[in-house]
Design brief:
The chain is an alpha/beta fold. Helices cover 33% and strands 16% of the residues. It has one domain: Rossmann fold, CATH 3.40.50.1360. Strand 9, helix 8 and strand 10 form a beta-alpha-beta unit. Helix 1 packs across helix 2. The structure holds 2-amino-2-deoxy-6-O-phosphono-alpha-D-glucopyranose. 2-amino-2-deoxy-6-O-phosphono-alpha-D-glucopyranose (GLP) binds next to loops.
Length: 259
């Protein structure tokens, strides 16, 4: 696991965009994209690179991390709609190459199994972007999630519903249930990139990176991954005991070694 501490959210976005750009330029790539506010700066930077530098997403494929149960894809807060308006519709990515979970599927268990199979049939995910919830969740894998879980239905904590209430107007409108890639599913991506900005994420980042590997902090599963990069700003790094070492290691990073 590599911890990259950047001074500002803009620098975080630039580092994350560098990782995605490298994968996109290397050939047809499969991206795992996350919603939430954390990756928004990275999407804006990638859109800028598409317009200014000709970064071409036409051969990329995208799988979403999670989805609310009960919302049609057309609902403006469905993650399918959000990722279209924040990213896919603003670059040259064919919406047919965007894959999401159907939160209105009649048989949610079958939908979850279909999704894992679709990811596998696409050859797996090359780069998976992740945010982190204030309770350490990734995707919608709330504390207590099995570290080897597959895509499935989960019940949101009251805290997560409150955290997401601003997107809906009222907490009463936030669904109680979601479909989310499991921690085991996420762990099969070839490169995990977790992004966090702001002091509100400092405790969750410290628990994920320096705490024990535990279902109590689902993001700690990154500690088991062979290629995980955690990109944070100074505020989100505020509770890291080894922050000086991470900065030192970055300064001395071999020039041939990429993130
Ligand atoms: N399902 C999403 C997560 O994927 C995201 O990481 C989290 C944090 O969101 P934000 O980045 O807005 O803090 O929110 C939701 O729960």
């Amino acid at each position: 696991m590599e911890i990259v501490i950047r001074s500002t959210p803009d620098e975080v976005a630039s580092t994350v965009a560098d990782i995605v750009e490298r994968s996109v330029r290397a050939g047809p790539t499969t991206l795992g994209l996350a919603t939430g506010s954390s990756p928004l700066g990275s999407y804006r930077e990638l859109i800028r690179r598409h317009h200014d530098d000709g970064l071409d997403f036409s051969s990329a494929r995208v799988f979403l991390l999670d989805e609310y149960v009960g919302l049609p894809k057309s609902h403006e807060q469905s993650y399918f709609s959000v990722i279209r308006s924040e990213f896919v519709d603003r670059v040259d990515l064919d919406p047919d190459r965007l894959h999401g979970l159907d939160g209105r599927a009649h048989d949610l268990a079958a939908e979850a199994a279909r999704y894992d199979a679709a990811i596998a049939a696409a050859g797996g995910i090359d780069v998976q972007l992740l945010g982190i919830g204030s309770d350490g969740h990734i995707g919608f894998n709330e504390p207590g999630s099995s570290l080897t879980s597959r895509t499935r239905i989960k019940t949101l904590t009251e805290q997560t519903r409150l955290d997401n209430a601003s997107f809906f107007g009222s907490v009463d409108d936030v669904p109680h249930h979601v479909l989310t890639q499991g921690l085991g599913t996420i762990g099969e991506a070839r490169h995990l990139v977790l992004v966090a900005v702001g002091a509100g994420k400092a405790d969750a980042i410290a628990a994920a990176v320096e705490g024990p590997l535990t279902a109590f902090c689902p993001a700690s599963v990154l500690q088991l991954h062979r290629h995980a990069t955690v990109v944070v700003d100074e505020a989100a790094a505020g509770r890291l005991a080894l922050a000086d070492y991470y900065r030192y290691a970055l300064r001395h990073k071999p020039t041939w070694q990429q993130f």
